Amino acid sequence: MRIRNYANAPVDFTVQHNDSGKVYVDGKTISKNSETVWRSTDAGFSDGLRSGRYTIQFRGGTNKVNVEIWGVAGSLPSDAK
Fold first, then answer.
1. Residue 29 pLDDT more than 80?
2. What pLDDT, on a 0 to 100 scale, did the predictor assign at position 16?
3. How far apart are CA 81 and CA 69, in angstroms?
4. How far from 56 is each of 3, 13, 48, 67, 78, CA to CA, in Å?
5. Are 81 and 73 in contact (CB under 8 A)?
6. Would you call 79 helix, strand, or coil by DSSP?
7. What would the 3-class secondary structure string for 13-43 be?
8. How confident is the model at residue 80 (pLDDT cuts 50, 70, 90)?
9. Dihedral sign, Cα of residue 54, residue 74, residue 28, residue 45
10. Residue 5 burial by CB count (10 A; 0-12/13-18/19+): exposed, middle or buried?
11. Strand 23-30 to strand 34-37: parallel, antiparallel, or no bridges (unpaired)?
């Protein structure tokens, strides 16, 4: 996932698999006016993520959240490079 934070304050995000409740990302911070790339394989999930539905939540505390997100899925880690 590539996430761009357009806000003038940091934003935290969480990624959770709906069916199992497994949390893949818990409160990773994206600095103000910046971008981050998150890959499951880079985060230690060598088998990738489970198939199914996910909730991706963004929190900005008392600040407004203004993000854009892009995603890619594949069978091999090289598919998402």
1. yes
2. 94
3. 16
4. 11, 7, 16, 12, 23
5. no
6. helix
7. EEEEECCCCCEEEEEEEECCCEEEECCCCCC
8. low
9. positive
10. buried
11. unpaired
- DSSP lists the bridge partners of residue 66 as none
Q: In percent, how much of the chain has pLDDT > 70?
A: 89
Interval 12-35 mean pLDDT: 94
Asked whether 1 and 62 are in contact (CB, 8 A), the reply is no
* Owner of token pair 């854009």: 68
pLDDT score of 43: 76
The rounded distance, in Å, linking the Cα atoms of 76 and 63 is 37
